[in-house]
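Researcher: Before we compare anything, I want clean individual predictions. No alignment, no superposition, just each chain on its own. First chain goes here; please echo the sequence and then give the structure tokens.
Model: Echoing the first chain and its structure:
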Amino acid sequence: MSAPSDTLSDPDSVESPDAPDAPTPDSSDAPDSSDASNRSETSDPSDATDPRLNAEYVRTVSHSDHGDVTLVGVVHDHPASAFRARAVVRERAPEAVALELPALAVPLYRAYAGDDGAPPSFGGEMSAAVQAARDSDSEVVGIDAPTPAFLARLARNCWEERATAGTVRRVASGVASVTRHAMVCRAAASLATRTSLRVEVGDPVAHDCTRSDPPEAQARDERQQAERSLSFLRTFDAPESIRLRDETREECMAQNLRNLRKRGDAVAVVGIDHLDGIARRLKK
């Protein structure tokens, strides 16, 4: 996947590939010569040559009257993605950090971000971004479904596309599953608030590298996984129910980001599969 190089038709909005500039290092980034894991994970984010700061996966959509929106594409739970999300948020210090999470799930990732480690032990790139947002005094918001606006738009899209009854049933089943997961996340957040327990909801995605591997190995593994995922999406058409749901999610996430940029700059952490779709919709 290559970053788009064309300028926007809207003179008030422009998208460009954007590698993060030099974030200010803090004490959490000091390498420990006795710990290989710390050496890899806490490599100085100010080093623009770090391969995990892949400009292909970082885009900025600018607007003449509002703040910039920087999109950080991630492979969920990948150590390279967690490093990139944290580095970009720390460098930009935006007004808001937007996550591809439902609002109900955000408190759980705030609890994960309370860990002393950097990045946190749980929550992958999302809790890493929350931790960096806390250090930058940025607002953290969830921009993903389910929300009333998403449900209304999804119903409209199903109607306009004359979705079959079977497709509508599958769409409803998928939305119900996502809603249940969000509610479980909220319950786990309440438990974390009242106790010292940290409950990981669902199994993290397994990868062929860890944060203890060298940055080059992390970046190489991330790219391979991203290319496999995008190649699959280009080769096979998604089922109609998934296409309708994901397109509606991207429409709503883009709208939420438009609202956020009215208050200032925003950084959004989203799956690489959604990077192009959200960037394209932000241009409109």
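Researcher: Okay. Second chain, same rules.
Model: Second chain and its structure:
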Amino acid sequence: MPRTRALRRPSAAVTTLFACAALSGALSSPVVPSRALAQQPGVGGVSGSGMGQGEARISARSDVRLSMESLPGTGGSTMSALGARVGGRMAQIRACYEGVVRERPTVTGRLRLRFALPARGRPDVAVESDGVNDRELVRCITRELERVDCESIHRPAGAVVQLEMGNTAAAGVAESERRGQERRQVEVTVDGDGNASATGGNPSRGVRFTVTGRGRESAPAVVAAHRHLTTALPGLTDCRRRAARREQDPSGEVRVVLQVRAGRPVASQVTRSTVAEERTRTCVSRVLRRVERRAEAGSGRVEARIEYSITADE
């Protein structure tokens, strides 16, 4: 790896990057300040964190990336020291994630925590933004950060700790579900008014959807939109999981308008949501936008109704 030159500390907050890569093996690069948060796998603080080569490795199914940015009043040398100490808990933080992934492989996302070191006492850790929506995982990681040894570090000080978590099992589950759904032929029906429609989803996991077009001639567009939603089904199922956190009722429907043009990705816009969790609308919108599949045929505007329900085991 080429040598990285340390950057001069800007007047704003200093940001330090520590990335803990999953698939590239052991990490041994020195810790260097950076002007902004980066997402570069393979750059980390192992050599300055007290972690050995074995500890820097992570299971091939999990990927935890750590980056930190300083809070106002925290200098560059203090930030580097904090980064090394937090990096020293990465083995335990990865263990938190791997324990959750074994039971819930769809848990992925970004977690940002405010790590404040007061004049005396243990670190104060608070969630700034939770993109994983898993209470067990957040509690475990928070507990490990509270155990960081901050002896001899200049106080007060603080940083924002950002963790990006993903795993190959999640991708496998998503791909398995997508292929299973695609193997089923899209069955288009025509109602009494002459409108084409098709249904799909995964009822056992509380997700159904219905795509409806105007007139018989909308059938190809209905098929394209149906396949678009089928490709997005793992993500839509995860949106339902998030809607059910904190024992909330995930039941409700999300209305979507889809614009189909042959040879282009299907455009979508969420128009309404009756799910109690307000962020479900944003979650569904984000999932549908990420689908890159192009419509094989069809053209026109269709509507979809995504229904979330309580499953038998809830």
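Researcher: What stands out in the second chain?
Model: The CA atoms of residues 26 and 54 lie 7 Å apart. Additionally, The chain has two domains: 15-167, 184-308.
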